[in-house]
Amino acid sequence: MDGILPLWKPKGMTSHDCVFKIRKLLKMKKVGHTGTLDPDVAGVLPICLGKGTKVAEYITNAGKEYIGEVTLGLSTTTEDASGEVIQEKQVIKPIDRQQILDVLSSFLGEIKQTPPMYSAVKVNGKRLYEYARKGIIVDRPTRTVNIYEIELLDDRNIFAGNTISFRFRVRCSKGTYIRTLAVSIGEKLGYPAHMSDLTRISSGSFLKDDCLSFSEIETRLEEGDLENKIFPIDRGLSHLPKREINDTLAEKVNNGAVLPKDETWIYGDKEVVFINRNQVLAIYKIHPNKPHLIKPVKVLNGVN
Questions:
Q1: Biggest alpha carbon–alpha carbon distance for the chain
Q2: What pLDDT was estimated at residue 118?
Q3: pTM confidence score
Q4: Taking Cα atoms as reference points, which of 248, 252, 253 lies closest to residue 272?
Q5: Are 69 and 159 in contact (CB under 8 A)?
Q6: How many domains does the chain have?
Q7: pLDDT confidence of residue 139
Q8: Taking residues 286-295, what's their average pLDDT?
């Protein structure tokens, strides 16, 4: 089996747990996931099978979309509902809708984030959560991420109560921590906050409707029908520009040749998928040191 199997990851499992279970179910070793989802988060987790693992990084690097919930009035060690409460502040004054809309829209575009201590980011060879579990605080690298869309999913005009929760949808770049975004939303509204719920509703071009649960995978395996739900490898590259090439050039591309960049190259610095006879051959980009040339980033040798 070569391709991409979009899994609806259940709460309570790590992404690695999901890969391990798929390996056992399909009796195959070459299985990989495409971007960690926290154990408390359910949602779209594309699983790459066989030769599909060659494009895992491209799905990981594509944008993601989530539905999250912010709760104002409490902050936690982990920035989500699983952590210990470290700060409380009652919401004593109602918050109007426009105030929340203004705060959400202020995050559109490029923003800076510092990953939470309870995260899988590595510092000096160790993951941050390893330090956090020992009570060690370390300097964390600030990263730039992009918020493409953010929308309030609540029709109230006035938000009131000792704590206030509201849901939102966000489409964002790789590496965005929605937990940290929830905390930042709270800060701008003047309250400690945490992410009280989160679901990933898309990863790259894969949506909830594309996904199977583990029970559905098991049923399809019993019926011999699973392959009909495994997507071709090129689906994982659907967000990249495509270029159809002739047979002569295809032979060079399959051999990983560096090629001249001529006037037909209209893609700038983007990575481009080269296709011949409906087969994905390679991914090319401008040579970093020789801008008059293009070089292969990854040779795929005719996957589909």
A1: 72
A2: 67
A3: 0.87
A4: 253
A5: no
A6: 3
A7: 75
A8: 94
Q: Which of 2, 38, 80, 269 is flagged as catalytic?
A: 38
198, 68: one domain: yes
pLDDT at 231 over 70: yes
Per-residue pLDDT tens over the stretch 142-159:
889 999 999 999 999 999
- Domain CATH code at residue 219: 3.30.2350.10
- Give yes or no: residues 74 and 197 share one domain: yes
**Residue 117: pLDDT over 70:** no
As a whole number of angstroms, the distance between CA 46 and CA 36 comes to: 10
Query: Does residue 116 share a domain with residue 90?
Result: yes
Are residues 88 and 176 located together in one domain of the fold?
yes
Q: Catalytic: 38? A: yes
Can you give the residue range of the structural domain that contains 48? Answer: 3-62+204-236
Q: What is the pLDDT of residue 262?
A: 87
Instruction: Please tell me whether residues 268 and 294 are part of one structural domain.
Output: yes
Does residue 303 carry a pLDDT above 70? Answer: no
Q: Which one has a higher pLDDT value, 50 or 122?
A: 50
Q: Please give the share of the chain, as a percent, with pLDDT higher than 90.
A: 75
User: Which of 206, 253, 91 lies closest to 158, judged by CA?
Assistant: 91
Same domain for 290 and 169: no
**CB burial string 152-166: b at 16+ within 10 A, e below:** beeeeeebeeeebeb
Q: Please state the φ and ψ torsions of residue 231, each to the nearest 5 degrees.
A: -85, 150
Number of other CB atoms surrounding residue 223 within 10 Å: 8
Q: Do residues 234 and 58 lie in contact, with contact meaning Cβ atoms separated by under 8 Å?
A: no
